[in-house]
Amino acid sequence: MLTSMLFLSSALFMGWSLGANDAANIFGTAVGTKMVSFRTAAAISCLFIILGAVVGGSGAAHGLGALGAIDRLAGAFVVSLSAAVTVLWMTRFGLPVSTSQAIVGAIIGWNLFTGNPTDPVVLTRIVGTWVYGPILAGIFAMLLFLVVRKVVNNSTIHLLVLDRYTRNALLVAGAFGAYSLGANNIANVMGVFIQALDLPAREFAGLVLSGEQQLFLLGGFAIAVGVVTFSKRVMLTVGDNLFKLSPVSAFVVVVATALVLFIFSSTWLSDLFVSVGLPPIPLVPVSQSQACVGAVVGIGLVKGGWRIINYRLLGKIGLGWIATPMLSASLSYVLLFFMQNVFMQNVQM
Fold it and tell me: CA-CA distance, 29 to 18, in Å (whole number)?
């Protein structure tokens, strides 16, 4: 058990890094517009991230597992550590990078080191979300903003009442966003450990949790710690610097981002598509950072076109997206070499 916890430490580090970075995309716009305090945002994020991870985390986790079946704890440890270190580097620069890209890059590094093939169909499915994820979020944001703006403009509600409604709406949207983050991105934290560690089912407070759900619960707590301790800087980058957002715009961005993550982690929605003759939704961990930036850009287009978007910061974020999987894959390959040849730990069966 002690050995297992030692290897799981990299997953806890990854969870902390994800909480420090990706929580910015749940409440960054709300905190940046000072409609919600950081303390309140952190509390709601922690609660619903854990809930989403335990209740709805299996779909995206198994989708990620199809990219590389890591079956040894030492290999899972290195892959998770490589992704976490990459995310931490980017977070120190204040960039909302993709933990999904980091873990995918690290898994590819494991495939290259061990000689296991990388399934091009699965890889294309995951990488595709890096393209149409932010586009879909931008479309959602534009449509939602037009609807909300029309409702607000035609409303006779007093400004003080409208302000209270907006704050409450941001809290509800943030809770939905936190749940979606937990359900979708817990795969980035614990997905590589599912096949490497087999835990028996246990009962907690009258609820029976499978071994997989126990991993998700542990990962959810790690994300929550990252939210509380290190997420404020990236929140301000997303919420205040890329594009100046009004409180109503902040609400729209949170909802649009959450919808994208929810769609790509929802098993029942994918099954519904199949039942009506449509192709299934790929259940894979998508980049919440990219979805958030896509939503912010969508709002910018509706409000004033390309002229008022901070292109320098947008370009900096884009470079981070390109560099993240390459850095993570390279680091994973090097650390796997040391793990197997210096520490004499097998990284695959």
Answer: 18
Strand (E) or helix (H) holding 204: strand 202-204
Dist. CA 22–CA 291, nearest whole Å: 11
Least Cα distance to 258 among 180, 168, 172 occurs for 180
pTM greater than 0.90: no
CB burial of 71-89 (b: ≥16 within 10 Å; e: otherwise) equals: bbbbbbbbbbbbbbbbbbb
Give Cβ neighbours of residue 228 (< 8 Å, ≥ 6 apart). Answer: 19, 42, 46
Tokens of residue 8, six digits: 């799981």
Residue-level length of the chain: 349
List all residues 6 or more positions away from 198 whose beta carbon is below 8 Å from its beta carbon.
211
Backbone angles phi, psi at 226, to 5 degrees: -65, -40
Residue 235 has which token pair?
Answer: 């929140």
Separation of alpha carbons 133 and 287, rounded Å: 7
Q: Tell the residue number behind the tokens 């958030």, with chain if given.
A: 292
Each residue of 233-251: b (16+ CB within 10 Å) or e? ebbbbbbbebbebbbbbbb
| Contact assessment for residue 331 and residue 112, using Cβ atoms and an 8 Å cutoff | no
Q: For residues 231 and 16, what is the distance between their CA atoms, to the nearest angstrom?
A: 10
Across the 349 residues of the chain, what is the mean pLDDT of every consecutive 10-residue run? 84 87 72 82 94 93 89 94 85 72 94 92 88 92 93 82 86 94 94 91 85 94 90 67 69 91 92 92 86 86 70 74 89 96 90
Mention every residue, 6+ apart, whose C-beta is less than 8 A from residue 127. Answer: 104
Look up residue 323 and give its two tokens. Answer: 């560099």
Instruction: Give the DSSP letter string of 7-22.
Output: HHHHHHHHHHHHHHHH
Distance of alpha carbon 134 from alpha carbon 266, whole angstroms:
18
